[in-house]
Write a structure and sequence with these properties.
The chain is mainly α. It is 53% helix and 5% strand. It has a two-stranded antiparallel sheet. Helix 3 packs antiparallel against helix 5. The protein starts with a strand and ends in a 26-residue tail after the last helix.
């Protein structure tokens, strides 16, 4: 039967040769499916901007259905949908501003890195992790800045170490 090419965007497979693959990847159906896939990941502000620039689709407003569907160059959003989208964009903007306000304005990542480097040099020279300056600032100052923790779903290799450190097994056998 030979090798087959599967297109994730179009959810179809066909015999894999240069002619068939080129014909499929340059086809209108593939371009529409690819555009629809990437449109799922657009942010609300971009969608709102595009929908406000479009005129309302008369056929969709009259009959509730349009032959062109998502490929229509006119807007299929009602005034209620647009107001909900505006509200969502405003909520996202407000949430973003609130999260920026929660981050300590006096501490930057560069400050944290310089303090961390000072701690490491103090540890290597004195054997004491905390110096006089750090003990005055307290536990909150030794924590990692919020900017570094603001990324969701980080892989375990990028997460900060636990406060008590990682458990190390000395008698590990390699198989």
């Amino acid at each position: 039967m030979g090798r087959r090419y599967y297109c994730d965007y179009c959810d179809r497979s066909f015999q894999d040769n240069m002619h068939n693959r080129k014909k499929h990847l340059n086809g209108v159906q593939h371009h529409r499916a690819k555009k629809a896939w990437f449109d799922h990941f657009r942010d609300s502000a971009a969608i709102l901007h595009d929908e406000q620039a479009k005129k309302p689709c008369r056929k969709f407003l009259l009959k509730g259905i349009c032959d062109f569907g998502p490929n229509c160059r006119f807007s299929h959003m009602s005034e209620e949908d647009l107001s909900d989208l505006k509200r969502q964009v405003e909520d996202e903007r407000q949430h973003r501003e609130d999260s920026q306000d929660r981050i300590m304005p006096g501490r930057s990542i560069e400050d944290w890195l310089s303090r961390r480097e000072k701690k490491r040099t103090a540890l290597s020279s004195n054997g004491d992790l905390k110096n006089k300056e750090d003990s005055e600032e307290g536990q909150a100052e030794s924590d990692i800045p919020q900017q570094l923790l603001s990324f969701p779903n980080l892989p375990p290799s990028l997460l900060p170490p636990p406060p008590e450190g990682w458990k190390v097994k000395v008698n590990t056998e390699w198989g």
